[in-house]
Amino acid sequence: xxxxxxxxxxxxxxxxxxxxxxxxxxxxxxxxxxxxxxxxxxxxxxxxxxxxxxxxxxxxxxxxxxxxxxxxxxxxxxxxxxxxxxxxxxxxxxxxxxxxxxxxxxxxxxxxxxxxxxxxxxxxxxxxxxxxxxxxxxxxxxxxxxxxx
Length: 149
Hints:
The protein contains 5 helices and 3 strands. By secondary structure, the chain is α+β, with helices and mostly antiparallel strands. It has a 3-stranded antiparallel beta sheet with strand order 1-2-3, covered by helices on one side.
């Protein structure tokens, strides 16, 4: 597949997640809630997760922002649902590396649609947009972990 075709496919995946975000809404019952924003561009997100026995049982988000931040949050919630917290944090670390243009083993990530965001690394001003949801997840599970100690 040529670079232009791949770029077009990635744009379509990003726009699909932006127009039809997955896991948008609120988690039913007791949920861990994290509010974050990117003051540089006005993106804001509220991430809710239900974490039980070291596993992210459910994850949903609400917010507003650019296509990159909303689609990334949509993709992230899909990727972390049902995963152990440690694995979700590792995925976040790999995603951050990908955003910084570092070489990342995509098979180790198992990020599926998230690979479409790889091109964001060429636009440093947009990296914070792409990582906003991931940073909210990290903050939430780390805050929850420190409460449990």
